[in-house]
Write a structure and sequence with these properties.
Elements: H1 2-19, E1 26-31, H2 39-49, E2 52-57, H3 61-70, E3 79-84, H4 88-93, E4 101-113, H5 114-120, E5 140-143, H6 149-161, H7 165-177, E6 181-183, H8 186-193, E7 203-207, E8 215-216, E9 219-220, E10 222-224, E11 230-238, H9 245-255, H10 258-268, E12 271-272, H11 299-314
Parallel strand pairs: 1-2, 1-3, 5-6, 5-7
Antiparallel strand pairs: 3-11, 4-7, 4-10, 4-11, 4-12, 8-9
Helix pairs in contact: 7-11
Length: about 325
Amino acid sequence: MKKLAALAIFTLALTGCASEPVDTTTVRLATHDSFVMTDEQIAEFEESTGYQLELVKVGDTGTLTNQLVLTKDAPFADAVYGIDNTFLSVAQENKIAESFDEINYGDVCFNYDAEWFEATKVTPPTSWRDLGNEEYKNLTVISNPILSSPGMAFLITTYAGFESKAETFAYWRSLRDNGVKIAPSWSDAYFTEFTRYGGKYPIVLSYASSPAAELVNGVENSKALRDECFRQFEYAAVLNKAKNPEGGKAVLEFLKSKSFQEGLAWNMFVYPSSDVELPEEFKSTGAPANSTLGGDLDFAANRDQWLKDWSDVFDN
């Protein structure tokens, strides 16, 4: 299972760092499981900087952040990519890095399997607000907000989308009673539970850009609900107490480079923070959201209570 593999990599990294002398020719980048850097990009980085790059993937964004907090006095990497704005306050409060640079953004939206809905003659939803309705019973999968940044993004969206806590709770209960599936991570939800990949759920919490990945010969096999989404920003940083801080700085600069930024759309299905041209598919099928919600809420002050509220509904 992916979690066990990530933990195994994490354990090896820790034991290796504890017993080996400092290696300033290697730079370690901690990331979430969805991070992609192509072989060509790695070669470019290594040839231009002289460092050997080692990627240490540590589960979803929440797991990545928590592991960095737990090891902040002896970090297992020199730099990190993938802490997003829903978990950024945790990283800042625990001072795992001095500063964080924005690398890219994405809009967390529900996607639906257009082919499934056409075949079953069920009318697709038009909003996440519809998903507690009877016609969508047992059709939706989302990722757990405790460990998953898209899950946390959706939780924040629901708080922003209603005028009272009671209305938010009522909506959550409608999802629970309508058979919503809670998956451990975004990758589990999308690549295991979503009908596009052999799962049972034709509605999945994902990104506005995800339908671009499902294009086949110009046919839009999935669509995104692009209204009232959550805009997720992802950051990179050089870790405090890194064994190779200069290598960490080199990684950070490469992540902001035109070469890396131009590959973000097709490599990770996110939008670059720098001013580079998006592929045509990401201007149409995978376009950013029409509207967003929740970005102005105080995540740091409310995170623990929000997650407790969520657990009160879904774990009881």
